[in-house]
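Memo to structure team: turn this sequence into structure tokens by end of day. - J.P.
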Amino acid sequence: MATTAEPRSEATTGPTKAKGWGTDAPDQPLRPMEFERRALRDDDVAIQITYAGICHSDLHTARNDWAGTQYPVIPGHEIVGKVTAVGSAVTRHRVGDTVAVGCMVDSCMACDQCLDGWEVFCREGCTQTYNSPDRRSGEITKGGYTDHIVVRDHFVCKVPDGMDEAKVAPLLCAGITTYSPLRQYGVGQGTKMAVVGLGGLGHMGVKLGVALGASVTIITTTPEKGEDARALGAEDVILSTDAAQMEAAATRFDFILNTVPVPHEIDGYLSLLGRSGRMVIVGALTQMPGFVGASLIWWNRAVGGSAIGGIPETQEMLDLCAEKGIYPEVEMIAMNEVNEAYERLLKNDVRYRFVIDMARGI
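Reply from structure team:
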């Protein structure tokens, strides 16, 4: 809940010492680190982090799987906490507010994409929450596996009153990554929707699709996930390894959310789309195998991709989740358990998202 405390300006808040967990090299485990957060700028918000989600992207960046990691790196872009100070120009947030920060912390705020609320596609490139140069100082950003963070106020979202703060963090990546394409392509009442893959992204796709009124089916390679899928709200389950089930589902769906995080063939999934159906890929970031052109041309199908949404859409997603009581399924861990969590993540041994509880030590 917001307080009446006065904002603190850059002039009264200097650089601060921070503690976190990061790594020095792709083959090294995460370890405790100390570093300095910048002094508060006029448009900054300082946040004491209470919870931080663990995303596959954190693991990929820590291990330089996508190349470009600048070490030492401190991951974490699913952040929830309390405002401890605000710059002199900040009006949207007050000391004591519960707030959240996602995958980006700045952009030019002047190009057409930023002005349209799509800061993630800033023409000059958005500043990511970690492993990204600060627009003003050039310093490399450090993420949410830390005790506190300083972020430009526009990129700080409000956590609606009454939400379970411990479960909110994964919404800032897994939530908005799956919500954005559903909103962009009009998924709602009467939509026949399928979700490929039941992991951190997929389980949120099911929950959000159901909340928007869609009839949701899970497509998986794992029979054991059928019961979980139905518990999450899915009406049906299809095993993609069962040719008869796939054939029976031909042209059934209006929309397919593909959350598989590794390269894979998509022709079989495209056959499940009906006339003018669309598949949106949100999981795989590296090169995908080709597909047969007729899979698109026949039935007027389309395939595309989607990143996270902008800040307005992220706040809209949080508000919907608060209204509908939608949360990710989470497993709470202490900060010193992060390396074990990474190894379990590689084995898909989590249902369905790890969250670091900063109260359990950093």
